[in-house]
Amino acid sequence: KKDEFQWSTYLEETGAVCAPSECFRQSEIPPDNDFKIGMKLEARDPRNIASMSLATVIGIIGARLRLRLDGSDNKNDFWRLVDSTEIQPIGTCEKQGDLLQPPLGYQMNTSSWPMFLTRTLNGCEAAPATFFKKEPPVPPLNFFKVGMKLEAIDKKNPFLICPATIGGVKGDEVYITFDGWGGIFDYWCKYYCRDIFPVGWCRLTGDVLQPPGTHVPITKNIAKTQSTSSKETRPVTKNIAKTQSSSSKETQPTTKNTAKTQSSSSKVTQQS
Ligand code: MLY
């Protein structure tokens, strides 16, 4: 318990601020997750987003469901919030005059799909409509600022939610950087993306928050903000070279630490 990641300590150490809840397209009070393993629902096929298919809940984690498309393999599971617009109760498609489609990677002959569907739905436990929650509205503006902390899904490992920092803001997009991972998992997304959450989300939902990576030392936010703002405000002159070299001197001690941290953490990387 003692070694567990604690936002409060971490925020003190980094001198960082949390992105306020108004920034996010998430309910301030996370939705209840009433789903049970084995229940079936309709889900947009992540690999063929034009079509809705039949899915089974094969895991429950926080406010999310681990889903598998019926007739598909076990290598393409995906995770959805209970208030996602990409899931709906069984029967929704039919009501709209649409048909459920075989998933991309359907393991049998396509001609067997209608019969497969009938058999799979026969006697299945359909998730009740009340379990599906309304998606929160899009915040009116991109309120994110560089340096703000949040919890974000690692798109390369979408079951993982990790401590992250806003590394850039551009129009209606934000750059999500994963603390301690040296940039390899970072990505741009819309500010209203459903994969990013306010600090404390995992604690509230019971989802698992990963600790920050150990590949890059944790820097004080203040230092970062100062160096970027000085670059921005200076006119394009020879001074920039001077400023940059002096700031690189500042960061050199931390670079040494990086090497040390990386070698000690390589064990951790190999495990996963
Ligand atoms: N085993 C993988 C997992 C990396 C996850 C990184 N996320 C949390 C930002 C690895 O060590 O590469």
Protein architecture, described:
This protein has 272 residues and is α+β, with helices and mostly antiparallel strands. Helix content is 26%, strand content 22%. The strands form two sheets. A five-stranded antiparallel sheet has the order 4-3-2-1-5, with no helix packed on it. Strands 9-8-7-6-10 form a five-stranded antiparallel sheet, with no helix packed on it. The longest helix has 33 residues, at 239-271. The radius of gyration is 22 Å and the shape is elongated. Residues 222-272 have low confidence and may be disordered. The structure holds N-dimethyl-lysine.
Short key terms for the protein model shown above:
272 residues; alpha+beta; 6 helices; disordered C terminus
What is the element layout, followed by pairings?
Blueprint: H1 7-14, E1 40-44, E2 52-61, E3 64-69, E4 78-81, E5 87-88, H2 92-95, H3 113-121, E6 149-154, E7 157-170, E8 173-178, E9 187-190, E10 196-197, H4 201-205, H5 221-233, H6 239-271
Antiparallel strand pairs: 1-2, 1-5, 2-3, 3-4, 6-7, 6-10, 7-8, 8-9
The chain binds N-dimethyl-lysine (MLY).
Strand percentage: 15-25%
Q: Could you tell me the mean pLDDT?
A: 85
The set of bound ligands, ions and cofactors reads: N-dimethyl-lysine
Shape: elongated
Low-pLDDT segments: 222-272
- Calculate Rg over CA atoms: 22 Å
The helix-strand sequence is HEEEEEHHEEEEEHHH
Q: Helix fraction?
A: 25-40%
In whole angstroms, the N-to-C terminal distance is 21 Å
Largest sheet: 5 strands, antiparallel
Number of strands: 10
Structural classification: alpha+beta
How many alpha or pi helices? 6
Q: Strand order, biggest sheet?
A: 4-3-2-1-5
